[in-house]
## 1
Amino acid sequence: MKIVCLIATWHDEQLLAEAVASARPHVDEVIVLDGAYEGLRVWPHSTRDELDAAVHTGALVFNDRGHYWPSEIAKRNVLLELGRAFVDSEDEKLIRWALVLDADELLVNGEQLREYLRPRAPDYAPGLPRVEPDGNVWFAPSRLFRLDDVVRYRGRSYFLDYCRADGGVRYRNVVDLSHNEVGHVMSTLVGMPHVKHQWDRRSPGRAAIQRDWGRLLAAADGIA
C-alpha cells in the first residue's frame, strides 16, 4: 500500500507545520496545497513563513500566488490529483490511500495507521475517528479513503464519487463523507489511529476569517 497525506491550507499559521509533522513519519508523502479564493481577495495567500515551515517539516508545498480558487471543492479536487501523481505506480494491485487532514488537525497514533488499513483493502472510505477539543468523538469517512484514479469530491456535502469501468459497464459508487457523532469514547481510541481537531488553537484573526467568510465559501462549493 501507499499512503499520501493531503492538506489544503490557507492562513493556518503554525498549525500547518504541526499537522505535517504528525503525519510525515507514517505516510509516503505529504502534499500541501495553498491558495486564496475568488471573492475573498482581501485575504491574500498564506505567508511564506508558514509555508516554509511546512516544507522544513517534510511536506511538498504547492502555491500559485496568481491563482484564486473558485471554491473549496475545486481546490480539494486538485489536491487529489496531486496526491495521485506522487503515489503513482504501475502495479495495478497496489492500493493507494488518502489521509486527509485540515491544517488544524493532528494524526494521533500514526504508527498504527498501516496496520489499521491492512484488513480494509475492499473499503472505499474506512475513515478515522476525530476527537474535538471538548472530548466529543466523530467518525469521519472524509479523513481516510481509497485514492483511486476516478475519485473526486462533489457537492456541498463533500461526497466522494468513485466512477469505474467494469466490463464495458460504467457505474457509480458514492461515499457520503458526512461526519457522525459517536459521543465520548476516548477509551476506545487508545493505540488506535485517529485525528485530533485543534480549532480552539486558531489565532483570533484566523478564527474571524472562518466566521465571517464561511458562508461565502459554502455557497461557492454548492455550485462546484
## 2
Amino acid sequence: MADHYMAALQGSMRVSSLLLLEFRQSVRLQTRLHFQDRTKGFSSSEGAQMLRDLQTDIASGSLSSVPVDWADVHHLAEGLSARHTPTKGYRFADILHVATALHLGASEFLTFDGQQKKLATAEGLHVPW
C-alpha cells in the first residue's frame, strides 16, 4: 500500500521532524525487541537497512523535512485533545501527529494506525487507506 503510494507520488512527501524521530525510534525499539525475543521486531540488519532506506529517501528528495512552529502545533493539539480525548481517548502521539498535519496545511494523512485514522478523518483529513 505505502510502496504503491510512494511510487505514484509526484514530487516530495513533506514530513515533520517528529515523524522522522518517531520512525527511527520505532525501528530501534523493534530491533531491540527482536534481540530480546526473536519472534518479535526486526533483526539488526533489517533495522539498519530500514534506517539507511530512510536516509536515502531524504537524500534523494523523496521525503523532505519541513519546518514546524511547535508552539502552534501544541496549540492545535490542545484543541484536538479537548474536543476528542474525553470521548475517544486518543493518545498524545496521535494528537500531535494530526495537529502537525493540520499546522502544515495537509489535505492527506498517511497512517496504518486505526485510532490515528479516526482522529485525522474527524478533522477533515483524507486517509487514502
